[in-house]
Amino acid sequence: xxxxxxxxxxxxxxxxxxxxxxxxxxxxxxxxxxxxxxxxxxxxxxxxxxxxxxxxxxxxxxxxxxxxxxxxxxxxxxxxxxxxxxxxxxxxxxxxxxxxxxxxxxxxxxxxxxxxxxxxxxxxxxxxxxxxxxxxxxxxxxxxxxxxxxxxxxxxxxxxxxxxxxxxxxxxxxxxxxxxxxxxxxxxxxxxxxxxxxxxxxxxxxxxxxxxxxxxxxxxxxxxxxxxxxxxxxxxxxxxxxxxxxxxxxxxxxxxxxxxxxxxxxxxxxxxxxxxxxxxxxxxxxxxxxxxxxxxxxxxxxxxxxxxxxxxxxxxxxxxxxxxxxxxxxxxxxxxxxxxxxxxxxxxxxxxxxxxxxxxxxxxxxxxxxxxxxxxxxxxxxxxxxxxxxxxxxxxxxxxxxxxxxxxxxxxxxxxxxxxxxxxx
Length: 425
Prior knowledge:
Helices cover 34% and strands 17% of the residues. It contains 14 helices and 13 strands. It has helices at 2-19, 48-55, 70-79, 83-86, 101-104, 108-122, 127-133, 177-189, 210-217, 223-248, 284-287, 313-321, 337-342, 409-422; strands at residues 23-29, 58-64, 137-142, 156-157, 193-198, 255-261, 288-294, 302-304, 308-309, 345-351, 365-372, 375-380, 390-393. The strands form 2 sheets. Strands 1, 2, 3, 4, 5, 6, 7, 8 and 9 form a 9-stranded mixed β-sheet that branches. Strands 10-11-12-13 form a 4-stranded antiparallel β-sheet, covered by helices on one side. The protein is globular, with a radius of gyration of 22 Å.
């Protein structure tokens, strides 16, 4: 009888543990090219912690963000909507004529514009807001553009209101303590948690630890390339720290880990800046990113061949957490193999760094793009004067060097019609 009672109690405890709400951690790298990971096949860059997570995950190597600029991309990840839907299309508000960016950021118009952009975020059913309603504690760290972290619906955070993160940018580069303290709080209060870990890594300034820089200086004649590669490994080391923090508190098993990069970066070997067809562009160097979901208790590891978009992250996470998703989300639940395999197209749009008119997303539009199977069409907007459509076969031409537009008029016509069904400004 005694053994029966013990077994029954053990079963009840196990059932209770299985019913516990799922913890969630977002890992978001910043200015990181889709090729620059060990698990994506890079010959020099070492990312052992990301490699291990990817191995344990539902992985989409053909992942994309809709816009290759930090602020709108991060807003999409948090809201599950495209930039033209949440209206945060650009990094900054309009710049008054005759002013430099530095001068503009000191003026009243700049802050008024930021307040408008922050208001756009206030109107959204962000993931932190939905999770908070279900009793979660939610933490913002790292990159954050929408003023104080409360605009995103977080219960806790590091950013007080600076342009893209202020104190939040210490995470990863200087400390992991705020995350450790937050995890301890969640354990103490017995509440599920959501962590937004979006460090300024490998984003410039490229100032890696000297030990890592020395390692990569031996692998390339370009000091700029070496610094960028070293920054990636530094970022990867912090992911190892984050995983260890979860393991030390026995939290890893019941935690969903999501990875995505906010936009790409191709390092210019001749200077510290990024190369063409990279950040702020409509090319894969700025838009493509691996996306993965690690939660072995809920989803088996799989390297999926399907297309994925960052708009899919929020509905996928909400499904795994057992929370109803808002009806107006455009993305898919990526754990649904049938739906994701039937979808053959994904979409996006790139906008100006400074918005033209905050209330009219189309005013800042530079390009729209669509990928259908292996084909990618880029349609320039009016701001890109004299530019013509571009068409690439990504499987044969991953660097997008051979524009086939002149040879594929019918394909362009059909793909443009498809793009217009998504968004026609």
